[in-house]
Amino acid sequence: MPWKRTDPMSQRREFISFAMQPGANVRRLCRQFEISPKTGYKWIARFLEAGIAGLEERSRRPKQSPNQTAREIEQLVLEARDEVPEWGARKIRRVLLNRPNKKIVIPATSTINDILKRNNRISEEESAKRVPHVRFERDHPNELWQMDFKGHIGIAVGRCHPLMAIDDYSRYLLGVFPCENERADTVQSCLTRLFRKYGLPDRMLMDNGSTWGSRREHTIVTVWLLRLDVGLSHGRPRHPQTQGKCERVNRTFLTECLKSRSFGSLSECEVSFERWRHRYNTVRPHEALGMNVPASRYRSSWREFPEELPPIEYGPGSTVRKVGAGGWLWYANRRYRVGKAFRGYPVALVPAEDEDGIMIVYFCRYRIAQIDLRGHNK
């Protein structure tokens, strides 16, 4: 079975980065990447034999000369900088160190920085902007995914709405989708692709846009996530720093992939986005990761995506009500609103432990509202 993406080399590298991890389940990875086990084991064997070079189509990769002069080393530095002008000396040095079959001595970061300055590739003003940041992250892969739309960009016909998902712990960019709109069904389709490939996260963080709703108002997408037992978090309104990693990758995406580029179609966007995603995950060093790449820290989730959702069941002691039209439910001859996204679903009402007259409303195992039997629901 062939690779199905538009950039087979990127997919092979991503597959290998997971297959080489301790305890990797190769057959499960093959299912996630939609290739046959025969194909998967073939590329593993080639990688073990020749490293990354073994993933190239054979006879296409030229042999590298083991002899490099100082001028040639400087040229390698400048080529790396010109390929991605936003990369500084530290990233360039790590990229050169990571390249296989290069029998050269990579100069120190300070030397690379001098090369960039000497060749007018970097300015003192730009260097002054690079200051360290205080960072926060989860403890393990898939504890939290962040997801966000990167506005929209114009293409020859219509618009493209890039949708990004990133793992909080590893900064692994799970997907960059060129969507034609920001509707719920589009988002759900993209998430389904990610869940089938990487498994389910424990929790997802998004902003308060119309697709995601908010802490008080759910949407079709967030209700679907709760049914999958994926917890939800929403950023504080007008505080984009809550989704700092998404905001950071959005800026990198703008400067490294979109800047000075034009696209004729969504298909062209998909090819370009996927190539950049591969570079971001497996080539671009990240200072927050000790100059390692995200692929070195990411692992697929052990929670597999269920193709059929399980029935919704509640334990004894719960009062179950079905949410009606408009998102209302009836209890004790009164009507209370829990949200239109839940209409048609059963919810459970449980008395609050610390306050009389208050009922907590649960959907699956998640609290979605509370109702005050003495007054208005909250």
Looking at CATH, the homologous superfamily of the largest domain is Ribonuclease H-like superfamily/Ribonuclease H
Biggest sheet descriptor: 6 strands, mixed
CATH architecture of the largest domain: 2-Layer Sandwich
Unreliable parts: 60-69, 131-135, 238-242
Q: Secondary-structure element sequence?
A: HHHHHHHEEEEHEHEHHEEEEEE
Briefly note the structural class of the backbone. alpha+beta
Task: Please tell me the total number of domains.
Answer: 4
CATH C-level class of the largest domain? Alpha Beta
CATH topology of the largest domain: Nucleotidyltransferase, domain 5
Span between N and C termini? 53 Å
Helix share of residues?
A: 25-40%
Quote the beta fraction: 15-25%
Radius of gyration, taken over Cα atoms and rounded to an integer in Å: 25 Å
User: Treating each run of at least 4 consecutive H or I residues as one helix, how many helices?
Assistant: 11
Shape: elongated
Task: Describe the overall structure.
- The chain is 34% helix and 16% strand.
- By secondary structure, it is an alpha+beta fold.
- It folds into four domains: 8-55; 70-128; 145-296, Ribonuclease H-like superfamily/Ribonuclease H (Nucleotidyltransferase, domain 5); 319-372, no CATH class.
- Strands 1, 2, 3, 4, 5 and 6 form a six-stranded mixed β-sheet that branches.
- It is elongated and about 85 Å long.
- Residues 60-69, 131-135 and 238-242 have low confidence and may be disordered.
Entry keywords:
single chain; 378 residues; Nucleotidyltransferase, domain 5; 4 domains; six-stranded mixed β-sheet; four-stranded antiparallel β-sheet
